Amino acid sequence: MKRPSRKTAISHLILKNRLKVAVLGGGSWATALVKILTENKRKVGWYVRNPINADFIKIHHHNPNYLSAATLKTKRIEISSDLNQVVRKADLLIIAIPSAFLSQELDKLEESLEGKIIFSAVKGVVPESMLIVGEHFHKNYSVPLEKIGVILGPSHAEEVAMERLSYLTVACMDSKMAKAVAALLKTSYIRTTISNDIVGTEYASMLKNIYAIASGIAHALGYGDNFQSVLMSNAIREMKRFIQDVYKMKRNINNSAYLGDLLVTGYSVFSRNRTFGSMIGKGYTVKAAQMEMRMVAEGYYATQSAKIINQKYNSSTPIIDAVFSILYEGKNPERVFKKLIKKLD
Asked: pLDDT for 225-251, tens place per residue?
């Protein structure tokens, strides 16, 4: 009798609820993922950096700082502010720490990642390595590519908390693994699809935050829906060029993982990156906008990362260039957008 492969065995264990799952991160998206997993009757390890917040969640059954209206099934959660303890007990790690702070959190890691499955729910590039999260774990922690995956939208944590119908895309080289993880996340209000484009979907989740900042700036400057539609149309084509230059493969950029995620981030009132862009367009400095916002606008860090990465590929990215000049070179948003509109069609 032929023995099942290790990959098939792992997928089977996930589906049978025997693989131990942990979420790393204490923000809104981490909270939403924990909510989804526990409602699927999964026992979940949860790393929350702040021990005060961790204790609060245990007692009051909700996160005091993020999605506070969402009640959590804490009997199914083993929450800890000890990263190594959470990692030690888990087989599948879902990373939901903002990319700008991922390295400093991983510096605390003493446990080996050998044999672990890593799925990233992070939307950005790790600044220290200039790598998307999956590549970062592969190159710096020797996690095999077939044990790396991505969880992305289109969705907002706030709507997940309200149990509004949402969609998630699960990307992994191993389709059986992707299906198994997708099954973990499927609920009455969460629909899931799978993809084999790990690199493309992860870059898309980074780039869409930059375009959402552009959308927010445009809104604050008084540009209307007509211009926003042109901006988003150009953004998806710019995204397609950038991703194709970085990693060539056959993909449909109009799929939900790319275009859908871009649209929800660019238009939604829940979009922290659009909010950040709107504040910049109104005249806030970057530092003032960051101080006023309680959540991390990852598009700020993504803008610099995309600019640096593109030095190698020289892809045509007028929108990214415009946002970079405003955020990092202190250029006047109104003047920058007057030049940008001449480059859009």
From this structure: 999 999 999 999 999 999 999 999 999
Give the global pTM: 0.88
Peptide bond into 154 cis (omega under 30): yes
- SS3 assignment, position 253: coil
Beta strands 190-195 and 166-172: pairing type?
parallel
Q: Give tens-digit pLDDT for 163-195.
A: 999 999 999 999 999 999 999 999 999 999 999
What stretch(es) of the chain map to CATH 3.40.50.720? Answer: 6-196
Superfamily classification of domain 200-343: N-(1-d-carboxylethyl)-l-norvaline Dehydrogenase; domain 2 (1.10.1040.10)
34 within 8 A of 72, measured Cβ to Cβ: yes
DSSP structure string for 125-173: EETTTTEEHHHHHHHHH---GGGEEEEE-S--HHHHHTT--EEEEEEES
The highest-level CATH class for domain 6-196 is alpha beta
Locate CATH 1.10.1040.10 in the chain.
200-343
Contact call for residues 214 and 174 (beta carbons, < 8 A) = no
Taken as a whole, the chain contains a residue count of 345
